[in-house]
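Quick question, first post here. What does this chain look like in 3D?
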Amino acid sequence: MPNNSTITVFVLLGLTQDPQKQRLVFFIFLVFYGGTVLGNTLIMVTIKFSRTLGSPMYFFLFYLSLVDFSFSTSIAPRLVVDSLSAKKIISYNECMTQLFALHLFGCMEIFVLILMAADRYIAICKPLRYPTIMRRQVCVILIVFAWMGSFTHATSQIVLLLNLPFCGPNLIDHYCCDVQPLLKLACADTYLINLMTVSNSGAICSTSFLILMISYIVILHSLRNHSAEGRKKALSTCTSHIIAVIISFIPCIFMYTRPPTTYPADKMVTVFYTIGTPFLNPLIYTLRNAEVKNAMRKLWSIKY
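> Answer (accepted):
Ran it through. Tokens below.
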């Protein structure tokens, strides 16, 4: 902690102060978290042990599920437990750790979605060079760089906050620790830090979303030269990816590309990309993907 801070713990106000609604929050988000763990674990196990899902697309999908699992685990368990707690107390160190995990896995999800889009672009637009470009070694190197970039981003967010003094009050009007709610409690001028946060997190979200949308427009445009069967298969895969990109990026852009103001909808928007997106991604990538569903059936039949 900074030497001039007097706050050692924070109190999370959560999604609601109503006892009846808190019990509802407990059951709803317990189900969401259970579904997230089950769905992403099932995808990771299927990809790991299936012989038919060895392409780079499923290599990146494995890491997307791993990130979704970790992302939700850094937020959801505390939200579930706090919904039944009288005092939602979180220590300074725990708060900073949660913030680091939030930005580490959130940024990693963005990078993995970019890698998946690049994989689809090369597979559809440059099919003859695809096996050469997307070799296993290349995929591993790309994932390592993605982790390094995510770690750098998360570290930069923590460094900005670790030097801020917190003198009171210690009430965080949120259900998790994030940059904007903490900046409101700092006993210092945070304008410059907020500007740096927007230029960092906001730039990553906005630029990545723009790159992804342009890449998928190019991919969809190139599908006109493919056969009807190939076009249908590629379109199904790209549609899944576009849906995942939209539900991941729109809330992120809303939260991190604006002045230091808070809105009543902030908590629900944060719920959508910290709890909802990790829950929905397994459904998007399995319900719309015949190869994954067939691999799950084969794996299930072998195991039982």
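The longest helix spans residues 92-125.
The chain has a mean pLDDT of 85.
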